[in-house]
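Dear colleague,

Thank you for sharing your sequence with our group. We've completed the structure prediction you requested, and as agreed, I am returning the results in plain text so they can be pasted directly into your records. Please verify that the sequence below matches your submission; if there's any discrepancy, let me know and we will rerun it promptly.
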Amino acid sequence: MKESGSRHAAADEPGSAVLRQGRVGLVLALAAGVAGVLMAWSLGSWQTRRAEGKLAVEQRWQAAEAAAPATPRAAQLQDFSAELPRRVRLAGRYLHAQSVWLDNRPLDGKAGLLLLTPLVLADPAGERTTAVLVLRGWAPRDPRDRTKLPAVMQPEGQIVVEGLALPNPPRVLELGEGAVGGPLPAIWQNLDYAAFSRVTGLAVAPWIVQQQGGAADGLRRDWPRPSSGVDKHRGYAVQWYSLAGLIAVLTLVLGARALWRTGATAAHPTRPPTQ
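Please find the predicted structure tokens below.
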């Protein structure tokens, strides 16, 4: 009897090992499925937040554009940056020789640049010499000479500029350190306020004016809206949420099937034939 019991125990050991391995594999598979669901869902939520963030910025833009323009004085420019975006109207004169062209700004499939020119404010009180950078518009790049600056009109004397005050002009991906130095005018990849002040010696406001109005100077002002790309983010979110749902369904179906097989194996273990 002892010998018979030992043979049965030895016969049961392989089945028990298979059963344990099956349970471990099931747990790992379920954990992987849950992790996949959580990751896909979090990516969908991230895309949703990006879309909502752009819509919130768009609402602030619309409110600023509908408001009456403000006319900050030179002494108010630093504090004014806390109230952006805001519609402004500024009077002063351009310093065309200190302009910066921002590179890699395509429009309608054409290569081009954005023009930033400092506007020295007309300050009747004579408090200080301060400039605000005006994003004047877009111009196409010379296809034969990338270093050639576009020829545009350069208004002289006192002028009035109206537009939307923003923290920064649109930025592009920059690999390494872009060329931000003199002499000006020059082509930069992105705006650096500190570098611009260092090169020009001007005290510039920490914000820019995205100019609005007619384009008699030969520059295009088809500014992108903050809400551009919202539909793309929503589409990505739907894809990630759908993937999360698919992973959840597959995890439940395959997990239930594996659980049933594990239970069947436990109830009817396979034993080697008795000799």
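Summary note from our side: The chain has a mean pLDDT of 82.

Kind regards,
the structure core
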